């Protein structure tokens, strides 16, 4: 499939929550499944997750990436789960070329497997595991602006039938995690602010979220789980920033364990 025959694939952001999302779908699981079923023209996936952070950019180049169980202390069932989707050397080379053209040097990594930030949501989005799904790493020194730039570099993939997926968490303060607790007011306020900013195409506010969003430092003591949202917004291009083309859909995932907003967003 090429750009002349493929429908424009979406840019997506999902909140992957705890690894237990793989066996406890909650509110968001069925909605991600329905979203995946609607993506008839997607042929492959490129994913950015905060659970693969590197010095500089790397691109997964394994032909058959392993399923990495990069967590400890969870139910034994989780460690038996696999997501055996193929990789794609050709797609990896295409991603490397796009990054190079954007002035973002990157290297191929033929050994790295898919972390849970990638395979857990993909088990809902594409349970058949029959399409290439590769990751681009998140640099250790990434910022909201650089993550957005990364997304802009990946945007052309969408015209080639490749979905761009940022997997993180709309709010992420694990120090305040309370199993089964009611939603914290600050997490709700941050999620509502994010919806306003994303549906209005306010790029400046999004990239300056630590100063402009309510309770930003409490919702995100560190940036890494929100940076995939900036990447996804960057890959949205005009479908985020241009009022005449804007196509942004919030998928309500609720707030889990008091502090983890599980919202997802579809651009395009």
TrEMBL record:
GO molecular function, one term: dioxygenase activity
Keyword hit for Zinc: yes
SUPFAM superfamilies per the UniProt record, alphabetical: LigB-like (SSF53213)
Cofactor(s) needed for function: Zn(2+)
InterPro entries membership: Extradiol_dOase_DODA (IPR014436), Xdiol_dOase_suB (IPR004183)
EC number assigned by the record: 1.13.-.-
Metal-binding in keyword set: yes
Pfam families: LigB
Family membership noted in the UniProt record: Belongs to the DODA-type extradiol aromatic ring-opening dioxygenase family.
Protein name as catalogued: DODA-type extradiol aromatic ring-opening family dioxygenase
